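Hey,

Quick one before I head out. I ran the complex with magnesium ion overnight. Inputs first:
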Amino acid sequence: IAPRYELFFPIQAHHLDALAKDILAQITPPPGETEQKRKLLAQLEQLCKELISSARLIPFGSLVTGFATASSDIDCIFSPIQVSNNRYVETPHVIEGPTDAEKKRLGDNPDYPLLLAQLLEKNGFQVLLLSKTRVPIIKLKRAASDSHPELNCDIGFKNSLAVHNTALLKTYSECDERVKPLVLFIKWWAKRRCINTPYLGTLCSYGYVLMILHYLINVVQPPVLPNLQDIPPPATTHARELSFSEDGGDTDYFIWFAKNLSELPRSKNTSSLGELIRGFFDYYSFKFAWGNAVISIRSKGGLKTKQEKEWTTANIKTAGGEGETENTFQVKNRYLVAIEDPFETTHNVGRTCTGKGLNTIRSEFRRAMDKIKTVSMAQEFSIGSGIY
Ligand code: CTP
Ligand code: MG
């Protein structure tokens, strides 16, 4: 990215549009990159099938939503069972697990993460197996070569809900052609300003996307997007399209959202991309009640209060060791930035944000807004012009 953007945003509001388009041209993955990612995924899935023939690698995240920037990683889930994957058609649920021979070879309770990590390593991939995380993750790297850039891939072993929330994001992106460039631009800004690093106390990309969707559904007038989760399902909707529960889990998640886009009215909003960018920064700089509000894109109006959700302090129980009592301690940080997952409503997508992270995020929003305002005022009084 050209160094003239180093300070970012010293630019008039009406030039934001041009700036955004310029930047988008630079960060959009080069032609062929998505195909390369898909090819790698197919190749990895073939390897998984060596382990167990019914295995699948199900992609989710930016590769599917179209919100990938150049060098975005590939997110996928390893599933050892093949399930009839056409959720929208009433076909019998076909579930295919290990064959008898595979059961014999793998034993009763195979450690798939370890077995897969070993197999991938044997096949020349750089592999890191994280087994202390909530669910194991394999982090995979393929070094760049003449024919392809460096590719990074995360393989998870649970969280099929991600497949559903990915489908929701993709559908929102298909509702209006301004969604994707807005998301890519905000992701670029957040990465550039170092406020998109969940493990260092700030917010993940998914969190920023939910913030953008809330703005487009409920804040900007007229709305750019309808609330797809607030449209009642037709009476004929199959049960599998309404709710979902994780293998072995006892929670049923309501996963319905409207997908019949051709039947939904087009947005009456005619704002340019630049105007939407400015409105987004303005809302989160000056209007959004960070201390009290929870973003909930599934709800009418898009907001709840932290009290209403009881998202104030979290009580965490630790299992005491032998002979010790159970400990309960309070975590105050858990709900500083409160963004409800659209399906798993107990999950706060913003939980990675620390107090310091929140302060940095808020001051970055104001900084962006300052740059936009200062320069448009300078323009008004004819002081300087252009990008400086
Ligand atoms: N996800 C989730 N819950 C979270 C974080 C992520 O379910 N707390 C899932 C979502 O399905 C999301 C996907 O993981 O679409 C990828 O998340 P993330 O990496 O944050 O977004 P990407 O769009 O892939 O961004 P990047 O280009 O930065 O990788
Ligand atoms: Mg990702």
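The pocket of magnesium ion (ligand 2) is lined by residues 61-62, 72-73, 75 (CB under 6 Å).

Talk tomorrow,
K.
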